[in-house]
Write a structure and sequence with these properties.
The protein has 504 residues and is α+β, with helices and mostly antiparallel strands. The protein has 21 helices and 13 strands. It has helices at 2-7, 43-53, 57-61, 77-89, 95-104, 106-112, 119-128, 130-146, 174-191, 194-200, 202-231, 236-241, 293-304, 320-328, 345-350, 399-403, 408-411, 429-437, 441-448, 450-463, 475-497, and strands at residues 154-163, 171-172, 244-245, 252-255, 261-272, 278-284, 310-313, 332-335, 363-365, 370-372, 378-387, 390-397, 421-427.
């Protein structure tokens, strides 16, 4: 209506304006040069070119369609790999979304030659080839190494928590899991009844059968995982209270960077210091990083074929066990570590000890191997405890001295029948050397570079690829998601540092 009014408003003395018609009913046949859909320097060309350099024989061996025989031709593994890598590089991690993008996005259309790839094909491919994907990652590292992007002289290692595909309210105790399992088993039986297929049709019946079967398998897995969780609990009460997620039984509640807790996996990333190439990735169910350093070094060595010369980590990895392990392998470990006294200020506080009676004020006499307390009483050797990288020597005051002491309430308020004790820790030579090394200016400077190198790929994978929460479930599958993200990151590094378009 408004259009008609506008068009009717010609200048006085002139006719109505003559405008080009917009004809949306016409059919147009337009020639299209698929090769020209993306410019010469488009990164999708780089990805296609890079994937073409890789040894994909394992993938081709699994292609069932054979030339000269009947049946549909298969999609080229090079295409499926390139599609996933390009998609991840754009923050797309859904097979359905890739399939949709193949219909209208020029880069995807260039890759597929204007064909649409079914999302089932893409999703199955992403998780089907665990060994193939591991090989692919190693293969890529080989190419990057040949380009001089990896030296392994210095690697930085770090861990980051990525949320699982499960919410906190899916965690249940054993009784509830068993009740759900019974129900799921019953449903599986009912689904086997041929009348169900008659009612809803064979396709729907098959989909429902698969859904209840997967649910039953998940609940059976939940009971297995519950035993693992219980094994880590110390008291019977804690074991009884243990819970696991019914959606992703292998996920664990882990502390997040914002201080909250969420079902997560602990993703471990080892980065080469030269050009920030990822040389190893792993996924752990443990919220703590202490046990992850040795496996991470093993992975980097297996992937690149040599041991790192130096490894830089934060305080989460710097335990005495790891110092000894790295020393034995002659790897130079750099990491932050607390003073590591056996009796920390926190412990003293919890025991109600007044700061004026903390261990530092007790005087040690090396000749007599005794301590003297602020009241002048002697604490004598009372046993020792050997720990990896350290021996803790215990000294104890005479019970009668403490019971009659006017400082007792400040010094050892919780001691009933025993005298006050002190622990003197003696580090193994390797640990003492590590602590001394960490005091030097040169090493502090190297440690200062840790954040920029080790945290860069973690941030990139989360921000650019969008891997803040997994789409898949279970250690193996989330490990594959991480691997796809890591190899995408590495190829992006190669594009940034090495790739030049052919015309250039
Ligand atoms: S309580 Fe025992 S150890 Fe403490 S100051 Fe008194 S005598 Fe010494």
């Amino acid at each position: 209506m408004r259009d008609e009014q506008n068009q009717g408003k010609g200048q006085e003395g002139k006719g109505n304006p003559r405008l080009k018609p917009i004809n949306r009913q016409q059919l147009v046949l337009r020639p299209m040069d698929v090769e020209q859909l993306v410019p010469e320097d488009h990164e999708v060309r780089a990805i296609w070119e890079f994937v073409g350099e890789l040894d994909l024989s394992r993938y081709y061996e699994e292609v069932e369609a054979v030339e000269g025989e009947a049946g549909r031709a298969a999609w080229d593994p090079r295409l499926k790999i390139s599609l996933w890598i390009y998609a991840y590089s754009k923050g797309v991690s859904s097979g359905r979304e890739i399939s949709r993008l193949c219909e209208h996005d020029l880069a995807y259309q260039w890759l597929t030659g204007m064909e649409a790839v079914n999302y089932h094909t893409l999703c199955d491919f992403r998780v089907k080839h665990k060994e193939g994907l591991d090989e692919l990652f190693v293969n890529i590292l080989g190419l990057l190494s040949a380009e001089g992007l990896i030296t392994l002289e210095r690697v930085m290692h770090d861990g980051t928590k990525v949320k699982a595909c499960a919410s906190a309210d899916t965690f249940r105790r054993e009784e509830r899991i068993r009740a759900h399992l019974e129900k799921a088993r019953e449903q599986v039986k009912q689904m086997g009844d041929p009348r169900v297929a008659e009612e809803v049709g064979p396709r729907v019946a098959k989909a429902r059968q698969r859904a209840v079967r997967e649910k039953r398998e998940r609940l059976e897995k939940a009971l297995e995982e519950l035993e693992k969780v219980r094994a880590l609990k110390s008291s019977q009460e804690e074991k009884k209270e243990a819970r696991v997620s019914m959606s992703d039984p292998e996920a664990r509640m882990m502390k997040q960077s914002d201080g909250g807790f969420a079902p997560s996996y602990n993703v471990q990333i080892t980065t080469d210091g030269k050009e920030k190439v990822i040389v190893g990735v792993g996924v752990s169910q443990s919220g703590s990083d202490y046990g992850e350093l040795v496996p991470a070094i093993d992975r980097a060595e297996a992937n690149v074929g040599q041991e790192p010369g130096q490894v830089v980590v934060d305080g989460g990895f710097t335990s005495r066990e790891n110092i000894l392990a790295m020393s034995e392998r002659q790897i130079d470990l750099i990491g932050s570590m607390g003073t590591g006294t056996s009796q920390s200020a926190g412990q003293m506080k919890r025991r109600g000890v007044d700061p004026s009676f903390y261990p530092e004020v007790f005087h040690y006499d090396a000749v007599s191997d005794t301590y003297s307390c602020p009241a002048g009483k002697i604490l004598r050797p009372a046993g020792q405890e050997k720990r990896p990288g350290r021996i803790n020597y215990k000294y104890r005051a005479c019970a009668t001295d403490c019971q009659g002491c006017s400082f007792r309430k400040k010094c050892c308020p919780q001691n009933g029948t025993e005298g006050r004790s002190i622990v003197r820790g003696v580090d193994a030579p390797e640990v003492a050397a590590f602590i001394a090394k960490m005091e030097t200016h040169e090493v502090k400077k190297i440690y200062g570079q840790r954040g920029a190198v080790a945290e860069f790929p973690n941030a990139w994978i989360k921000d650019k690829i969008g891997l803040r929460q997994f789409r898949l479930r279970g250690v193996v599958k989330v490990g594959m998601e991480v691997l796809w993200a890591a190899l995408t990151y590495n190829i992006k590094q190669w594009i940034r540092l090495c790739w030049r378009p052919q015309w250039a």
